[in-house]
Amino acid sequence: MQKRKIFENVYWLGSVDWDRRLFDSLIPLPDGTTYNAYLVQGSQKTALLDTVDPPMTDELLAQLSDVRAIDFIVSQHAEQDHSGAIPQVLERFPEAKVVVSPKAKGMLMDLLRIPETAFVTVSDGETISLGDKTLKFLHTPWVHWPETMVTYLTEDKMLFSCDFLGSHIASSDLFVTDQGRVYEAAKRYFAEIMMPFRKVIEKNIEKLKEYDVQMIAPSHGQIYDRPAWIMDAYKDWVMGVPHNLVALPFVSMHGSTRQLVDYLASCLVEQGVRVELFNLAAADIGKLAMALVDAATIVVGVPTVLAGPHPLAAYATLLANALRPKTKFLSIVGSYGWGGKTVETLAGMIPNLNVEVLDPVLCKGVPAKNDFESLDKLAGMIAQKHKEHGFR
């Protein structure tokens, strides 16, 4: 794809990756992704903001074929999907300086073996003039690595946000045209990548309030030419209270745990609590992560295997612990054959979650009458606690 004009002397460059279905050998990409770089040509100097994933380098270099000089390569984030083509761009433009936050310098030297003499570090709030255009660099640590920063183009009131506010979605649209589709992709992106850093992201959102941002250009996904809605969404995801929702990831080997899960879900719905079930044998982990953004309660459905939790349930529990959602309550339902330490093992996997653990419901073999009565009590307790906290 050719470079595309955004404003006068401001261009999108990069690649649309229609085929990619897995990121970091972990994160599902059902809609592909884009690797966005941006070219800003001032009256005196030219800057390239970020590059592309290494396999897309030739496409980026082709887009730069008519560019006579690049003075600055701004690396907002050292991860290779944004910085990976910097060495090749430097070969084409050897006089360019790589502009980074102080923490990014050492990381890029380690990751890409860029020589130290190629770097210029910028402090938080520092500016670089391109002549009639000014780049202002704002440090935004832990969005989502410690070295990240964003860039504000003062004259055009445009924020280049790198991974912050992005979405994994492949599209030929330069700007957001289908807000519903992009909202879902952006929420998945936040859930899988940004959610563990909510507290720091809150500070970064506050930091941006003093800037008049009329357009947001992330490094994945489409450009927000009406950016208020994505900022409002992030405020809800980061700072909003949990919803009246139970996320219920489960796995069932011989049907007993599935009976418990289905009965509990029915009880919760009858009491006005929303439920989302995720069969871990085939679930999209990204969808589960999205539910964790909102869920006030997590209930893990788990059979016992070799005296411990089924590995898929253990994985889901570790995922929740790593993502650190706003969830307030957690419980376990499941079955066992002769004994084990499933509850103790899973409880030890959630040190990062500030949750109240509700009494689990475990049955020996298939569920009996008293097990269903215990599920009635658990559903009632969850519904009552949601009401007490005003979750909607």
Automatic annotation (TrEMBL):
This is MBL fold hydrolase. The keyword Methyltransferase does not apply. InterPro entries: Flavodoxin/NO_synth (IPR008254), Flavoprotein-like_sf (IPR029039), Metallo-B-lactamas (IPR001279), ODP_dom (IPR045761), RibonucZ/Hydroxyglut_hydro (IPR036866), Rubredoxin-O_OxRdtase (IPR016440). The keyword Hydrolase applies. Residues 246-383 form the Flavodoxin-like domain. SMART domains: Lactamase_B (SM00849). It holds the Pfam family ODP. One of its GO terms (molecular function) is FMN binding. Keywords: Hydrolase, Plasmid.
